[in-house]
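User: Can you model how fe (ii) ion sits in this protein?
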Amino acid sequence: MLKEELLQIKEKLEEGYFPQWLLSDPEIYKLEQEKIFYNTWLFLAHESELKKPGNFITRMLADDPVILMKNKDGEIKAFLNSCPHRGARLCTEDYGKKKTHTCPYHGWSFNTNGELIGIVAGNKLYGENMKKSEWGLRPVPRLESYQGMIFGNLDPDAESLDEFLGDMKWYFDIMLGRSDGGMEVRGVPHRWVAKANWKMTSENFAADPYHVQTTHRSAVELGLTPNDPLYASYGHQVVLQNGHGINIITSATGRSANRYQGLPESFEPMFEKNLNKEQLEVFSKVTNFVGGVFPNLSFLSSCSGTEGNKYNHLQFRVWRPLGPDKIEIIVWFMIDKALPEEYKEKSYKGFINTFGAAGTLEMDDTENWARIIEASQGKMARDRSLNYNNVINYMMGYDNLKPDDSFIGPGTAYPTCYTDHIARSMHKYWFELLTKEEKEVVTDGFNYTNTK
Ligand code: FES
Ligand SMILES: [Fe+2]
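Assistant: Here's the modeled complex, given as structure tokens:
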């Protein structure tokens, strides 16, 4: 029924009409969980968060709690954070270092390979049918990484992460692979809960530099950003596969005042070594990279500080849906490992002032997302009739903007970042996943997988 209703809006959705009821409907939220979040690659952690054997972190993969651990061979493994004895949550900490995880309920213990290694009074209580090797932690169906970014997928038959990311990898190489040693997470990720629909927050980063000049007006008044309503429009908006997209924002002249985003000049030979000519060209001119990996991973590579004292950083963020009107926001601060400690600390302080739960720019955005929710829950906003009176607008650039074929990176590039091309592409992919036919499920009875 819901699917039929969705099929009727397909065409209009592609033209940039988005029915507002899709932002607040509990059935849509349920369908999104099943068709999107249980089947796509979701970002879990960066490899630098698990430096040594025994290091672990706990995260959520859609609505499953998971634990990621580094084993003694240096491999990263991920398991459902639930004890296979009676299902208790095994690890209650956010992060730490342990060789053995002992369940708080009856004391079963597991090593960093997820193997069951200890049962309290086990020899006296269980018979021969109880084989310890069959009762390890349940592994996350798929775990793959690119440039240190670890993603999990609940669908064992999903396409590879490599295929899923597609041309986004070219841009990830610039942001994450330009320096020897790569990037590292500094501090622990900031986490808080906000009133918002996940689609709105994802599109805010992936597809909406247009909001910057109004929402973040205070930054102009403080002299942190230029007093030009078009300043976040210069550059290219690039549409990539699978609902991904990136905005490559430059200054009005097509260049950045800070070559290589204000990173030290001495790093240039290293960038030349690690990037190709086209990547270097894009990187040398960019002011900000801002974009998203569908469905709910966003990134922003920008500088904090005032002119002459600019410090680059990269932030990744996940908008984890907790309902149609609520999300958990998780923000990672990342920086080139090769930078001097003093630069890293200054950059981190600049980031904390502007982003994270108490950041000045962050508050501007969260206020708007909450207001969208408040304005989307009434009778008028939830009207589902097909007369298109109840739609919100994604028509920017639809029939008046052509791709710029001279852009040297992969993807379909438009010659301004003030356009809704990525947003429409996100809606298209969202729609495809939501209306996709069910896969045939083949079961072979009791096929409990152990960790061996
Ligand atoms: S639930 Fe974990 S040991 Fe019983
Ligand atoms: Fe914003």
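A couple of observations from the model: The chain has two domains: 49-146, 166-434. Residues 49-146 form a domain with the Rieske Iron-sulfur Protein fold (CATH 2.102.10.10).
User: Helpful, thanks.
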